[in-house]
Amino acid sequence: MEYFPAPLEKLVEQFARLPGIGGKSAQRLAFFVLSLPEEEAQAFAAAIVDAKRSVTCCPVCRNFTAGGLCPICASPKRDGATICVVADPRDVAAIERSREYSGHYHVLHGVISPMNHVGPDDLAIKPLLERVAKGGVEEVIMATNPDTEGEATAMYIARLLKPFDVRVTRLAYGIPVGGHLEFADDATLMRALEGRREI
User: Fold this and answer.
1) Theoretical Cys-Cys bridge with 30: which of 11, 13, 176, 177, CB 3.0 to 4.6 Å?
2) What's the rounded Cα separation, in Å, for the pair 81 and 54?
3) Percent helix, strand and coil across the chain, each rounded to 5?
4) How many domains does the chain have?
């Protein structure tokens, strides 16, 4: 039995398709949209359609852009000798927030995941190899997540980069700032010990 009119049910279903949104959250969002004034609801819908139509991938790094090169690739202030490889455009935003990295990026748009039927050919690995083959790149930083898929992707790409005269590094792992040793798992402690540095 449907509790709501069909258009409202359809709206709830669409919100429920979003990652991390359950049935109750989808209902809340749908009711919020219905409570908006007509012009705000139109602006909301138009923003979704406009983003879908106008956001594309940068032809160099595969990050999201509104056409042409992304701002990072277009900036002359960035260090073109370093490429940080990430799985997702959100990872670019996370690293940029640190304000510690001044090189370029390469976005894979996923990680190798046989369970999810994602193989190397489904990722933007070939454009990365073409960028490195052109020369001028001294270091490739593998910044995929430290989980099984992220590790497998990093190792696979590192093997492909072996023939090139380029340094391949991996983000350090370890105890998070503010964390406690007693709560760290064995793998994290092992990585922290392996990645220790002089102070």
Assistant:
1) 11
2) 30
3) 50, 15, 40
4) 1
